[in-house]
Amino acid sequence: MRTCLLKLSGEALGGGGAGLDGAVLGRIAGEIAPAAESGLRIGIVAGAGNFVRGAELVAAGIPRQRGDFMGMIATVLNGMALGAALEARGVHARLLSGIPIGAIVPGVSEEALADADARVVIFAGGTGNPFFTTDTAAALRAAQMGAEVLLKATKVDGVFSADPDREPGAERFSRLRYRDVLQRRLQVMDLTAITLCMERRIPIRVFNMLAPGNLAAALGGADVGTLVTE
Q1: Across-strand partners of 125?
Q2: Which of 15, 86, 141, 165 is in Cβ range 3.0-4.6 Å of 24 for a Cys bridge?
């Protein structure tokens, strides 16, 4: 594996709470750094649930479109924090955004993607458009990078037949086909993201990033969690 796209949740960067958790940022960066130093090119997309939750904004009377833009801006904060944590470990991380922010964060472009010096490229700002999730943004950026796999970091050990927190007897799948996920509406990623990965033949590996070493193992190509493929 030479290139991958890592999808992180905003909640993970907040340590399960609001804002940013420095210790969690350090642990994540500490597991990413060796993989980048080994020559792996890593794209990263992070959500913004530690700052903004769409359902809560809608409940507060904020229109969906405006709430989506608020979430995209919040992903820039997460991207800046993660980039700083990686730079502190000697890893050059380039931050790009679907919504360029002046001299602070440039937009996504072919020229920026061709920056061979950046072993890690952090994509903030979602797709740059409302009504699309960061899952879809991750699938889009994976396609743009030519990623060989999309690594979906979660808080559970892969994809289950039902919510394992509510149904302890839920079956964990080691492998699934894209069509199985779509037909059964399994909670992997949103349907647009799954469809894009299927069309571009980008495998998706869903794994538990809370288990120490699991993130590094996934970046190293280990068979952790659930693999979704053809």
Answers
A1: none
A2: 15
With a cut of 70, which residues of the chain have pLDDT below it?
Answer: 116-117
CB burial class (10 A; 0-12, 13-18, 19+) of residue 229? middle
Cβ partners under 8 Å of residue 166, min gap 6: none
Range of the domain at 138: 3-229
3-state class (DSSP) for residue 180: helix
State if pTM tops 0.90: yes
Radius of gyration of the chain (CA): 17
Q: 9: helix, coil or strand?
A: coil
Supply φ then ψ for residue 166, to 5 degrees.
Answer: -95, -30
Token readout for 152 is: 């979906």
- For position 116, what pLDDT does the model report? 60
Residue type, 226: T
Q: Within 13 Å and on the Cβ side, how many CA atoms surround 97?
A: 21
CATH number of residue 155's parent domain: 3.40.1160.10
Are 2 and 148 contacting, i.e. CB atoms less than 8 angstroms apart?
Answer: yes
Q: Per the structure block, which two tokens stand in for 67?
A: 């709430």
Other C-beta atoms lying within 10 Å of the C-beta of residue 6: 26
Give the end-to-end CA distance of the chain in Å, rounded to a whole number: 18
